[in-house]
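Handout for the seminar on molecular recognition.
Each group receives one record of this type.
Step one: identify the two inputs.
Step two: read the structure output and locate the region that could contact nicotinamide-adenine-dinucleotide.
Step three: write two sentences on what you found, then compare them with the reference statements printed after the record.
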Amino acid sequence: MKKVGVIGCGLMGSGIAQMSALNGYTTVVVEVNEEILKKGLASIQDWLEKGKKRGKVTDEQIEAVRKNLSSSTQVNAVKDCDIVIEAVTENTELKKKVFKQLSDLVRDDAILATNTSSISVTELATVVKNPERMVGMHFFNPVPIMKLVEIIRGLATTDAVMAASREFALSLGKEPITCPDTPAFVVNKLLIPYLLDAVRMVQDGIATPEDVDKAMVHGCGYPMGPITLLDYVGLDTTLHAADVMYAEFREPKYASPVLLRRMVQAGRWGRKSGRGFYSYEKR
Ligand SMILES: NC(=O)c1ccc[n+]([C@@H]2O[C@H](COP(=O)([O-])OP(=O)(O)OC[C@H]3O[C@@H](n4cnc5c(N)ncnc54)[C@H](O)[C@@H]3O)[C@@H](O)[C@H]2O)c1
């Protein structure tokens, strides 16, 4: 693989494009308009500059990103890519539209990857000419730091495409694991019930948010407690993931506690809205 396309330059797409360019791939990132693109590229720049100040990013890496990364508001820009990773908003119809376009545009043997957290790879592959080259590549936030990539095999995905995607993740310095096309894959299947249980504890008055966090940090050596993590991930994102899993599996462990739903309804989404279980206003 030499040339990489990334669709979407939001939180995840910008990180994926950065890591691809930094590791020597000619990379082109596509956004819907110049304004959003500029914001995404600025976040990459910002990340690199802060990393350099902290001694974590070298001048060579900054130069590699400058040299290898280009951007466009036209999806045509990815037409000669060997792999295209889609990281647009989590919406099935939008993603299908993007993959239909890509399928008509790129070479028949180019790999089409989705960074979706909850949509079936097999379902997205239904709009693609040859679904055997469609795969899930689920990166974690923040992409430059988190090492894991879940490589998801759709029903039609070939062994060759799985192997090539794994190799690509390794070449970005990541630790890939493979997983079938099942809702929430591996991490969220473990993580979401854990987060929901933490909310249930608070809801039922068993422990305060602070004590739930302390319990897991000091009792289990976790770097961060579940309530703090929830505020990071976003209560809305967690609720969405839980609802998708509950709809699929109908198991009580995926059913959202009422408190989580009420907090989302009240706009207490965590850090991004200034308030979740903890307050981040003017901090
Ligand atoms: N945020 C996370 O922690 C996280 C982690 C793993 C996976 N994901 C998944 O990654 C994907 C992107 O999430 P995000 O958090 O980066 O969202 P985001 O909202 O930060 O970015 C999505 C970007 O896609 C752009 N976009 C929409 N339609 C487009 C199109 N047709 N062409 C090009 N760009 C388009 C939007 O303008 C936006 O900038 C989602 O599928 C999400 O589920 C997110």
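Reference statements: Residues 188-272 form a domain with the N-(1-d-carboxylethyl)-l-norvaline Dehydrogenase; domain 2 fold (CATH 1.10.1040.10). Residues 231 and 271 are 6 Å apart (CA to CA).
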